[in-house]
Amino acid sequence: MTVWRTSLRSFFSHKGRMILSGIAIVLSVAFVSGTLVFSDTLNATFDRYFTATSSDVTVGPEEEDNAQETGREQTLPASVVDRVREVEGVASAEGVVLNTRLTVVNEAGDALGAEGPPTIGTDWGPETRRSMEVAEGREPSGPGEVMLDRNTAERGEVGVGDRVEVVAVPGRFTATVTGLAEFDGPNPGVAYLLMEPTAARTALLGGPDLISAVNVQAAEGVGEEELARRVAAGLGDGFEVDTRAENREAMNDEVGGFLDVIRYAMLGFAGIAVLVGVFLIVNTFSMLVAQRTREIGLMRAVGASRRQVNRSVLGEALLLGVVGSALGIGAGVGLAIGLMELMGAIGISVETSELTVSTSTPVAGMAVGLIATLLAAWLPARRAGRVSPMAALRDGGVQGSGSRRSGAVRSVLGLLLSGAGAAALVAAASAEEAADGSLYLAGGLLLTLVGAIVIGPLLASLVVRGLSAVVLRAFGPVGRMAGRNARRNPRRTGATAGALMIGLALVGSLSVVGSSVVASASDQLDRTVGADFIVDTSGEQLITPEAAEAVRSTPGLAHVTDYTEVQLELTTPDGETSEEGVVAASPTYAQDLRAVTVAGELADAYRPDHLSVGESFAEDHGLSVGDTVTARFVGGDEAVALTVGAITSEDTLLDPGAMYLALDTARAHLPEDLVPLNVAMFAVAEEGQRAAAYEALRAALEPFPQFEVADQADYKQQLEDEIGGLLNIVYGLLALAIVVAVLGVVNTLALSVIERTREIGLMRAIGLSRRQLRRMVRLESVVIALFGALLGLGLGMAWGVTAQRLLATEGFSVLEIPWNTIGVVFAGSALVGLVAALVPAFRAGRMNVLRAIATD
Q1: Which of 31-35, 207-211, 474-478 has the highest mean pLDDT?
Q2: What does R_g of the chain's alpha carbons equal in angstroms?
Q3: Domain ABC3 transporter permease C-terminal, which positions (predicted)?
């Protein structure tokens, strides 16, 4: 109990000093807890949605993984419903319509629906009514009438009585909105277009006798699995029969990857924040132990054992961890609510009423906070326990005679780790295969980071001296004193700067990688893309025949290229058969994409019954130009002999190692209804007509907002915006670690000011003004921040250059170092140092001179 009373007394007597360390714990735990609450809530929302929209058993057409992309939904004859109803144990069976490849356009010409979730066209039948109800207006009663879900209508500013256009592969039609529907339970942002059942079959599937699936409800006392077995036996082959549980699992798998990316990315950044927080806590407790040397010595003198002193310090850390973790868990719930609101802004609706806090969340948050705090406090506690009573009473500090020797050992260890890390980075940069270099890169990142942290005190003495000479010279004696203060305790300066170094190293490396990716892609576009315009699709959309015709009929175009992919079964001369996706395009694609060949001419691949193969495929099967392979187009009946006209290189970003053939070859060997739709289109303007053709093409596709027209400049800008947006998100998440690092600078300066109270009083007594004193503290903070920035950005650039050399094996061959970004971040670090010093400098300036001099 004595140890706990000592811990409590010390904790509350230094509560001001503990606040900043506590904030670091709160932020770290909040990120962990918020991530878990947010992902659990999303999982629960999707699970309830899938449960509400699924029936006991679903019967659908047998899926073909390698089917041609015709854009048409797989269907069943409506007569299957009657066959299902005859199965024993079926309470009800209803045919349903489902089309997920459509676009709904409002009167302003904007596509409705969120960017992430799909737009679903379905029928307003018994199955839909189980999970939705009419909230406004009336249900659709025939062709030309539709109903929308309320959320989609509100986002698209569509009301009852408005007109919308529906663009689908079976055709384009205009309809009147007769009503708005609302889910009984949660709807995570899926846009719904609802039609009268017969009209839905014709408009969305292409015929009144077609359905997408049969939803089956089991009779009382019949289980899902038993009913599924009976239905499967009654229908025979050619059908996919799934239970509610299987459907829910499949749907969860579809969104699970998206949710896992969010979860693990955010937990990764939370881990970085925890690591940075550990630095702050180590510094805090090290300085507190140093300042309590006399107190600890007295405790030892009156009989306290090393273990008791150790437990006293760890007791403070435990109390700090418990309080900080508890607050962090609460803050994490608030963070999760904020993330849910952010998701709502992009169209993924997650109601706060669905907030899910599982038992594991507070357990995980508390565990993270306590483990991080106790681990960080262990070394200072160990040092405190090793203080001898006599050394403490002489106020010699906690560092014993072996401190210089331990510093030398630390420097040697840091040099060895850094050297090993540098060697690993060189090996990664020299690797010929990305897979081989990745292991060296991971090892190099870890070793150089740990090495920089370990060698930080040695670097602090050297680098801070150089920075002081450059940055602080203009400030005269005050600048020189600030530089000496920063060098006075290299271990403390190294640890403080190390926290900032971690975040800035990641910023620097990602900046180099992002800039290099954009520069490499731009270089590839300039060298290989000959097309003036690209018509692209989003998600799983395909270019409808009507839109494709609008592109072809645009005036001012010299040629238009169709581009799609066909599925083939290829049998090579070595007797092996494999399923391959082959690009089927117009012969002009050889001009639109100047693909590099290692043998033959690409134009020959577009001759009738010819194709090109990739370099690896050719090597694996011993193929050369002129050889013949046997092909069967999936969905076609006959085998076809195709001649290898060219072998393409894999050293490119665009279609690396792709196989090509003429779209006319595919049309000749496939039934008309199985010829795939375009996934993209390319066009070249007539000479001197580029600007006019661009405007004409954009105008031609205005009725089709799901397709985008881009010239090369647009395409480059889109790429830059996408990568820039991703990097901004990453920088925003890394800002958490940098905020914690700034708190470390504030904490170090605050404790340092307290530590130097008597010294500050003496300086004031011999003429140092308050303004000069505050400037000295601010300059000390600036030089520490710049030291951390120099280490972090230097380390990050080394990581980024190595990663780029590794990416060069995949075609990203241009190294681009964003000097502007690096410069702004470095200058920003000085500003961070100034901000971090505001409160400590203000407190130092207000210090009473006489009391400061009298401080023991």
Answers
A1: 207-211
A2: 34
A3: 269-389, 733-848
- Token readout for 638 is 């006959």
The pLDDT assigned to 608 comes to: 92
Count other Cβ atoms within 10 Å, centred on residue 397: 15
pLDDT at 561: 93
Q: What is the pLDDT of residues 111-160, one digit of tens each?
A: 887 666 778 889 998 888 888 889 999 999 988 899 998 888 888 889 99
Residue in this structure with the two tokens 């949710």, named with its chain if needed: 259
Question: Which positions ≥6 away from 36 have C-beta within 8 Å?
Answer: 263, 332, 358, 360, 361, 364, 365
Which pairing describes strands 660-662 and 577-585: parallel, antiparallel, or unpaired? parallel
Sign of CA dihedral 370, 372, 373, 377: positive
What is the percent of the chain where pLDDT is above 70? 88
Spatial distance between the Cα atoms of 827 and 841, rounded to a whole number of angstroms: 21
What's the pLDDT score for residue 1?
47
Residue 743, classed as helix, strand or coil, is: helix
Backbone torsions φ then ψ of 585, nearest 5 degrees: -145, 165
Query: Of 421, 417, 397, 251, which Cα lies nearest the Cα of 798?
Result: 421
Residue with token string 């053939």: 661
pTM over 0.70: yes
Average of per-residue pLDDT across 740-760 = 74
Backbone angles phi, psi at 169, to 5 degrees: -60, -40
pLDDT at 12 over 80: no
The DSSP H or E segment spanning 205 is none
Distance separating alpha carbons of residues 692 and 690, to the nearest angstrom: 6
In 3D space, the residue among 663, 662, 531, 546 whose CA is nearest the CA of residue 606 turns out to be 662
The candidate with the shortest Cα–Cα distance to 63, out of 227, 213, 175, 276, is 213
Phi-psi region of 98 (alpha: psi -120 to 50; beta: other; left: phi over 0): beta
State the residue for tokens 């579809």.
254
Residue pair 587/520 in contact by the 8 Å Cβ criterion? no
Average pLDDT of the segment spanning 508-527: 85
| 435-491 pLDDT per residue, tens | 778 888 888 888 998 888 888 888 888 888 888 888 888 888 888 888 888 888 787
Helix %, strand %, coil % of the chain (to 5): 60, 15, 25
DSSP 8-state code for residue 543: B
Measured between its terminal Cα atoms, the distance across the chain in Å is 30
Strand bridging mode 707-711 / 533-537 = antiparallel
Tokens of 686: 């007539």
Given strand 57-61, what is the order of strands in its sheet? 90-96, 213-218, 57-61, 239-243
Q: How far apart are CA 317 and CA 374, in angstroms?
A: 6
Question: Residue 505: left (phi > 0), alpha (psi -120 to 50), or beta?
Answer: alpha
Residue 86 parent element (H or E): none
Give dist(CA 223, CA 220) in Å, integer: 8
Distances in Å between the Cα of 327 and the Cα atoms of 33, 375, 785 are 11, 20, 28
What 8-state DSSP symbol labels residue 571?
Answer: E
CA distance 152 to 231: 36
- The enclosing H or E element of 530 equals none
pLDDT tier for residue 413 given thresholds of 50, 70 and 90: confident
The pLDDT assigned to 407 comes to 65
Is the pLDDT score of 218 beyond 50?
yes
At 696 the pLDDT is 93
Q: Which of 533, 557, 794 is nearest to 680 (CA)?
A: 533
**DSSP 8-state symbol, 75:** -
Q: pLDDT at position 238, please?
A: 82
Q: Is 400 exposed, middle or buried (0-12, 13-18, 19+ CB in 10 A)?
A: middle
**Contact criterion met (CB below 8 Å) for 209 and 191:** no
* Confidence band for 611, pLDDT divided at 50, 70 and 90: very high
Residue of 564, 567, 570, 659 whose CA lies nearest to 612: 659
* Residue 88 contacts residue 216 (beta carbons within 8 Å): no
**What is the SS3 assignment for 215?**
strand
